[in-house]
Amino acid sequence: MINVSLYCFLFSYLLALGSESLRVAKNHAVLVWVSSLSMFAGMVAHTIYLFNRHGETQLPPLLSSSHDWLLVLAWLVAGAGLVLTLSFRKLAFGLFSLPCTLLLVFASMYAGSSPTAKQVEETLRFWKILHTATLALGFAGVVIGLILSLMFLIQHRRLKQKKPVSRDLKLPNLESLAWYNRWAIIVSVPLLTLGMGTGVAMILYLKGEGTKFHFGDPVIIGYAITWLAMIFFFGWLLSRTRAHGKQVASLTLWACGFVVITVVGLQVLTGAGLVLDSWHG
Amino acid sequence: MYFRVVYCNHESAELRVRERLALASEEVNTRAYGEFRQRFPHAEFVVISTCNRVELYAAAEDAEALPSKLEVAQVLAETTETPLDDFFDVLHERCDEDAIRHLFQVASSLDSMVLGEAQIVNQVKHSYHQSRTNNCLGPLTHALFQTAMRVAGRVRTETLLSEGKISIASVAVGDFGRSIFDSFDDKKVLVIGAGEMAEDTLRYLQDAGATALTVINRSIERAQRLSETWGGTFAAYERLDDYLGQADVVVSATGATEPIVTAEQMKRIRKQHGRRTVFILDLGTPRDISPDVGDVDDNIFLYDIDSLEQTCLRNRKKRSKEIDKAKEIVESSIERFMQELHHRTSAPIVKRLRDEWHEISRQELSRLHNKLQHLDESDLKQIERSVERIVNKLLHPPLEAIRDHAKEGPPHGLIDTVKRLFHLGD
Question: Does pTM surpass 0.90?
Answer without folding.
Answer: no
